[in-house]
């Protein structure tokens, strides 16, 4: 399972500001200036966060006048969702095994 997890992708998504930016971009894309109007960080900080998301392949930029317009790469976001589902499924299996072990131990001590 760990081989299928993209650490760079999850490092990019792991930051709450970047997750909020993805939410805003999913509503129709936008520029760093537009995003900074909806976030408690400066435009320069937004630009740096967008750079991280871009390197992870989660957003793509196109020139828009003096700025760049960013849009979410839905294929890459879909990969993240699939990886999260895989991790969740693996943990569900682990928790079921732990529950069975705990029940067996509890049964033996009675």
β-sheet strand percentage: 5-15%
The helix tally amounts to 5
**How far is the N terminus from the C terminus?**
37 Å
Largest beta-sheet details: 2 strands, antiparallel
Instruction: Output the CATH topology.
Output: Arc Repressor Mutant, subunit A
- The CATH class designation is Mainly Alpha
The beta-strand count equals 2
* Global shape: elongated
Q: Enumerate the spans where pLDDT stays under 50 for 5 or more consecutive residues.
A: none
Rg over C-alpha atoms, rounded to the nearest angstrom: 20 Å
Order of helices and strands: HHHHEEH
Fraction in helix: 55-70%
Q: What does this molecule look like?
A:
The protein has 110 residues and is mainly alpha-helical. It has one domain (2-108): Winged helix-like DNA-binding domain superfamily/Winged helix DNA-binding domain (Arc Repressor Mutant, subunit A). The protein is built from five helices and two strands, in the order ααααββα. It has helices at 7-13, 16-26, 32-36, 43-55, 74-108, and strands spanning 59-64, 67-72. It has a two-stranded antiparallel sheet. The longest helix is centred in the last third of the chain and has 35 residues, at 74-108. It starts with 6 loop residues before the first helix and ends with a helix. The mean pLDDT is 90.
């Amino acid at each position: 399972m760990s081989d299928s997890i993209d650490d760079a992708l999850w490092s990019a998504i792991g930051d709450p500001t970047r997750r909020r930016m993805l939410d805003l971009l999913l509503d129709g894309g936008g520029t760093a200036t537009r995003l900074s109007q909806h976030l408690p960080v400066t435009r320069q900080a937004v630009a740096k966060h967008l750079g991280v998301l871009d390197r992870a392949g989660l957003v793509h930029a196109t020139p828009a006048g003096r700025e760049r317009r960013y849009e979410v790469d839905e294929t890459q976001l879909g990969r993240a969702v699939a990886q999260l589902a895989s991790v969740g499924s693996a943990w569900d299996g682990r928790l079921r095994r732990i529950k069975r072990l705990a029940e067996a131990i509890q049964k033996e001590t009675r």
